[in-house]
Design brief:
The protein is α/β, with parallel strands linked by helices and about 230 residues long. The chain is built from nine helices and nine strands. It has a six-stranded mixed beta sheet, with helices on both faces. A three-stranded antiparallel beta sheet has the order 2-1-4, with helices on one face.
């Protein structure tokens, strides 16, 4: 089932075209890695899919079941690392987009938040202050928050940036398990080795554009020129 389809998309950043002619589909259960040079428009594409940025030309088509159900883990800015809130409060905030004017969290939302804490193996941290956690722990908290927004599609922008080796491997393992459980993953990465290891599909944007399966990507000049 197609969840997101982009047709001949042109992206604009600061009134300049940064990528054009992007056409690809994301099916339920895909693990799509977006690769490309710095400034090629990867983060712009992700924000465009989220509706945070407009696009110059083309079309984005969403399946009705997921248009309001996309979780997002952005690149972690310095200010995010200093949230003066508890882990539990931050994870629960993933429901804010669904609450409307309701000023409290429902019992089912609290239960789902607890389950997501357990799934990411951080239930023992729920009462800790977010800013006291390690970088790897903080990323897992923010991923749990994204899961509270949806269990359909997760958009992850460099989720392992700045993490040590152990935390990086743990994050990749968690993301892989979520994908195996049926969550569609769209992830920006500079880590070609891990992209090849985990992704079902690759989208490379830049001077050369490619979209296809991991196996197809391994046969391209783009891949051969990179390794």
């Amino acid at each position: 089932m197609i969840q997101i389809e982009c047709k001949n998309l042109s992206l604009e950043y600061e009134q300049k075209i940064v990528a054009e002619g992007l056409s690809f589909v994301v099916n339920k259960g895909d693990y799509l890695c977006i690769l490309g040079e710095n400034g090629s428009g990867k983060s712009t594409l992700m924000k465009t899919i989220l509706g945070l940025k407009s696009y110059k030309h083309g079309q984005i088509i969403y399946d009705n079941t997921i248009k309001q159900g996309i979780g997002y883990l952005p690149q972690q800015a310095v200010i995010q690392k200093d949230f003066p809130a508890s882990v539990k409060e931050i994870v629960l905030s993933g429901f804010l987009g669904k609450m409307g004017l309701r000023p409290y969290y429902a019992t089912i939302e609290k239960q789902i938040a607890k389950e997501n804490l357990q799934k990411l193996q951080i239930e023992n941290l729920e009462n800790r202050c977010f800013r006291e956690l390690s970088g790897g722990q903080q990323q897992r908290v923010l991923l749990a928050r994204a899961l509270c927004a949806t269990k359909e599609v997760l958009l992850l922008d460099e989720p392992v940036a700045g993490l040590d080796y152990q935390s990086t491997e743990k994050m990749y393992e968690i993301i892989e398990n979520l994908n195996k459980e049926g969550v569609t993953i769209i992830m920006i990465s500079h880590d070609l080795v891990s992209a090849i290891k985990y992704a079902s599909h690759i989208l490379h944007i830049g001077k050369k554009i490619f979209y296809g399966t991991r196996e197809e990507f391994l046969k391209t000049d783009i891949y051969k020129e990179t390794v």
